[in-house]
Amino acid sequence: MIKFFVLTLFLYAALFADESQILDQSLQSILGMKNYNANKTFLATIFKQKARYSDDTRVDLLRVLQTLKENRIINLSLKGAQPLTLSFKTQGSSTFFIKTLSDALRNLGYYKYTTINASKDGATFIWSIQYSADRIIDPLLLEAELAKVGLHIVGVQIETPSAWNYEIDMKNAHLHVEKLDAENNINIEQLSAEKWLEISSVSKLAIISDSANSWYPYVSFYDRDLNLLKVEKVDKKTSLLNLNVPLESVYMKISDIYMLSNIKNGLNIEAKESR
User: Fold this and answer.
1) How many CA atoms lie within 13 A of 177 on its CB side?
2) Angle made by CA atoms 81, 69, 164, in degrees to the nearest 5
3) What is the per-residue pLDDT across 106-130, written as a single tens digit (0 to 9) for each?
4) Distance, CA of 179 to CA of 75 (rounded, Å)
5) What is the model's pLDDT at position 137?
6) Which CATH number fits domain 178-274: 3.30.200.20, 2.60.120.260, 1.10.10.10, 2.30.40.10?
7) Nearest in space to 92 (alpha carbons), one of 171, 176, 174
8) Are 193 and 65 in contact (CB under 8 A)?
């Protein structure tokens, strides 16, 4: 009985040590050793209930970031506008990653930025941007926006208050767009931007332009990773366009050769045959 109690106590202590170690490692990675050591006593207090934030294999990164933000260990507001740098690392299609991430940033109101690095090393792609503001992007809001397209933040490192590094998991990435299929034809009454659709189950489709439009079709087909497969262009005013969909197509983008205002009155897209 005593041996069993000692073994149980040992296993519990080992588990607690693992939870403590993995959480501390995550905090060190997020904050950097200098900031971690400067706040070590306070961190031990606010993360006292370690099981709420980690087990022996993983850390609940978003809950950790929320707690750090609530306790002002990380501060998103800066002293006046200054250059801010965000670096994003992932594994997967760089084309797909830049589109989905830039869409997420734009939805959060960030679109005036400059790319300062876009590089690939094997399967790893890094995209770094710089913009001017008095506030860093809230990582929790960024995660919520990324989650809409199947991306998730799995790592954060704060180099300085104005330079943050993110690691993004995009294994389940997809575009957040309408799906065209035999049971869901799409009618767009007004069009102010290029229209993206998922067409993975369609082999033939038709696009009907509103009679008030002057549409000069520019239609692009893409695979799952947004590699361009085919472009259909018609340099004359068109009211009806019938198209065969390339076999590997997952997405389609509808635009105009000259200007989007040519199709501002809308389009109707119909699936004619399914795959």
Assistant:
1) 22
2) 50
3) 999 998 999 999 999 999 999 999 9
4) 40
5) 95
6) 2.60.120.260
7) 171
8) no
